[in-house]
Prior knowledge:
The chain is an alpha+beta fold. The chain has a single domain, classed as Transcriptional coactivator/pterin dehydratase (Gyrase A, domain 2, 2-Layer Sandwich), CATH 3.30.1360.20. The protein has two helices and three strands. Helix 1 (16-33) runs antiparallel to helix 2 (60-75). The longest helix has 18 residues, at 16-33. It is globular and about 35 Å long. Keywords: Lyase, Tetrahydrobiopterin biosynthesis. Belongs to the pterin-4-alpha-carbinolamine dehydratase family. This is 4a-hydroxytetrahydrobiopterin dehydratase. InterPro entries: PCD_sf, Pterin_deHydtase.
Amino acid sequence: MRVVSSVNLISFTESWLEAFGFMSRVALQAEKMNHHPEWVNVYNKVQVTLTTHDCGGLSQRDVKMAKFIDKITLSD
């Protein structure tokens, strides 16, 4: 049986400034949820990893954050 321990998302934007804006929106939501992603930003690319260390894998908070990220990515 394969256990999924994280959700990985990659967002490409038009510029570094747009990537920074994306990260800022995610950061504000992360603060509200008290659930902070791991991420890497290189110019216009943002790679986000969601996992819950306390439970050793995915939690509902990861799913909720992933849905938020999908929503803002698709609406832009």
